[in-house]
Amino acid sequence: MFIKNLLKNSALVLTLSITPLIAAALPSDANQPIRLLADRATYSERTGVTTYSGNVTIEQGTLKIAADNLTVNLNTANRSINSAVATGRPATMQQIITQEKGLAKGQANRIDYNAVTGIVTLTGNAKLTQAGSSFSGNVIRYSLSAGDVEANAGGGQRVELVFPPSESGSRRGVR
Fold this sequence. Notes:
It is built from two helices and ten strands, in the order H-H-E-E-E-E-E-E-E-E-E-E. By secondary structure, the protein is mainly beta. Belongs to the LptA family.
């Protein structure tokens, strides 16, 4: 149950980090202004593509994203987000999920969010950490609707999960 909750919450964090205009983890985050800084920003009315490049940072409440580039594809009819891609070496995010669960951090060379399918994909040195636990691999895919996680290591490496010892000191195994 702990692993399922950790992975489900991590997927939520990543989704929220990529789409700060849609939702936020803490209710107060959604009511905060969005501050986006970049060296350059371009928008194409015809295609609905907005590109931010050069030391891109986004902040909204407890949410913080840093990337070399961020591309957002909008539905030109209703101005909603179809997809977003953050890239960097690595692209990073952090956000407080709840006061009880604390700060979650994620990073990957590329973070893709598909608003149509509800899938978040972290590619290239992907890693999530929260409450002392971490989950890493080369590619991590999340289905937001189902809460499922698929991780692939690639290149002869392996997926890694690291959990801190339980507070009660019990030695229960992962099931």
